[in-house]
Structures are given as C-alpha cells and as structure tokens.
Prior knowledge:
Blueprint: E1 2-10, H1 13-25, E2 30-39, E3 48-52, H2 67-73, H3 76-85, E4 93-97, H4 100-108, E5 113-117, H5 118-121, H6 135-143, E6 149-153, E7 162-163, H7 169-172, E8 182-185, H8 191-198, E9 206-210, E10 217-219, E11 222-226, H9 229-238, E12 241-245, H10 249-257, E13 260-264, H11 270-282, E14 285-286, H12 295-304, H13 316-329
Amino acid sequence: MNILYAIQGTGNGHMSRAVEVGPVLEKFGKVDYMVSGAQVEIGLNKEVKYKSQGFGFYFGKKGGVDITKTFTKNSSKRVYREIKDFPIEQYDLVVNDFEPITAWSARLKKRRCVALSHQSALLSKNCPEPKFKDPIGKAIIYKYAPADKHYGFHFSAFDDNIYTPIVKQSLRNANVKNFGHYTVYLPAYADETLIGILHNIRDVKWEVFSKHTKVAYDRQNVSVRPVGSRSFNESLISCEGVLCGAGFETPSEALYLGKKLMVIPMKNQYEQTCNAVALEQMGVSVLTKLNTCAVMDIKRWVEKAQPLHIDYPDQTENIIEKLIAEYKYG
C-alpha cells in the first residue's frame, strides 16, 4: 500500500507527533512524507519527498499571529496551483496532520483522506469550548484541512474518536529530574518582552526557548536559547515548571512529566483558546495575557502551584492499526 503522510510544519508539535507516527505507518506500506510550512525546528529524521510553503501562520512578537506576514508570505495562486498539481492519485491512503495542500488535493480529486491531528478532536461537540463565539476560528478548524475520517488527540479522551496525546519515546524513557529552573516556550512574544517580565521574579532561573534568536545569551536570571529539540527536551525533563503557550504538545509533555504548568493562549487563536479552557478545567493555571500585571500571577504560580502528573498511555500502535483496519474494511 502506498501511503502519503502529510504534516503541518507551522510550529513543532505536528512534527514531534510525526516522529512517533511515521515508523508505525511504515509497517503497513511504503510511506512518502510531505511537510508544508516553514516554522519548524524539529527534524523528521526521514526523507521528505514533498515540501511546500503551504498556507501557514507566522508567529508575531506581541502574543499572537503576525497577520501582515501571514498574508504577504502566502499566495492564493501558488496554493491553488500546488493543490491542483499535487500527485495525490499515486496514493492508496492519505494520512493528514492538518496539512491543507494534500487535504484539498484529495478533496478536489476525490481521493480518501484520513485526518490524524489535534485539530480533529476540536470538531467534537464534547470538547471544552470558550463561552464566547468565534465563527472564523471555528471555520478554520473545519475547513483548513478537510478529511473524510477524523482521529483526534486531546488532553482527555472526550469522544470515541479522540485519544490522549502521543508522547515522544525520548520523554517516556527519560530520567526525569528537578534542577529547579523553569522552561519557557512562548514563540509569539518578543525576547525583550519575556525578559522584561521574568527578570522581576529574581529568585527563579528561567530558560527561554526563542524563535527570534539564533544565538544563546543570558540576561540576569533569564537564559535565552534558540529552539532545538534536544536542548529543549533536556530543559523540559529537568525543570520544575513550564510556562508556555496553550498549544498541545508542550503542555501534554509537561503534564506527562509531572511538571508545574502555566499556559498563555495566543491572541485570536481559537485552537489555543479551546486548549486553555480544557487545561483550566483540569486545574492548570491559565493567563490571558503577558504584561507587567501578570508578574504577581506568575510569582504566585511559582510559589504555590502543584504539578499534575497524567500517565498518558502509549496508544500509537493501536491507533494506527485501527486507522488502517477502518480504511481497508470500513
């Protein structure tokens, strides 16, 4: 069986999951990989047959998406041409992690596409949602990468087709420690903003992983490092707590490792708002914005918060086996 595994390359979470899913898919056929988007620091350790700029979102420095850069970097003519020209007919099965080019190519050419993503979970009415309505954000989840069948991941198994997070084997096998520092990953904020906030909590060592620098440097009690999977994992495994966006993979890993967790959802990002609601229901600390007023909230979290430890089971083999079986016989 010829399988295409298409992965969204905006941010590191999709690629982190693909590192675990890819080898399992390869047990069921020949797998070609496609990655779209250009904001990922994690390597796949596989030959990527197809690469595309895709239709990606670009992180800003004020807590949200850089709208101007997002639209100037994306061309609707290029995207349509790539959708039309993609050789989707060569594949018996398309497995898609929120990747729009192959999803729409499959829809256009009537090829079956199976979604395997966190966003798929958000289609369920059983998943926690914010009280306010966001029709545009919801439409993006529904329409950005359409599929015929959905398998979703979330912090809890809210529905029959939703599974708990895939945690990297490197973390499952890690010798978890606590060296007392706090790991920070907030790519939508400028380094200077983070330094300005965190240096006010002087009795804590902060290890900030940044998309905005290629050179490591220190400012008082704040260390800023370029994002790299190995260095980030080392910091995560040995930290006391994690301050990060309300994405999916990093909060999931922090929960699995038993680290204190505080999240700040990106502005005007429906997926992260939904995640923040779910995490808050679990007892995770949530900040709505990062400014000088947040210093006392962060300090209180550092001093008083207790870690959760959620032992997410390793279900990757079972999920892929079910996906393949339903594809063949369903």
